[in-house]
Amino acid sequence: MDRLLVIAAQVAIAHGHRVEVIEQIDPLTEEPVVQAVVDLDTGIRYRRADDVRGEFSRWIGRVLECTVTIGGAGRTVLRVDPIGPGATGAKRALHGADAAADAAKAEADRWGGTDRPPTEEPERFW
What we know:
Blueprint: E1 3-7, E2 18-25, E3 32-39, E4 45-47, E5 57-69, E6 75-83, H1 90-112
Antiparallel strand pairs: 1-6, 2-3, 2-5, 3-4, 5-6
């Protein structure tokens, strides 16, 4: 599944280049924010002025489309195809897994008959 990255800078990366993306979850919006992009084919690093601190996710992808807006503040829109595992942040993946586990438990409780006491096993005589 393609990812659309919007970067508040002019970052020109050619179609087909492999990039490493470092993201951090914004505590207010719970959305990933791009902290750095490294063009692995040219070795050029683009990063925000502030250092990455705390928990972050790192993933690799291939650029499918790059649109650079010139003038004003300038911005770049990258459409990237994630390559391999690690394409999503661990925090988001665990949150989704927890929600799925809770839903499965609720469904099991609904169909499993947990409202009835378990039957006692009779004593065995040998």
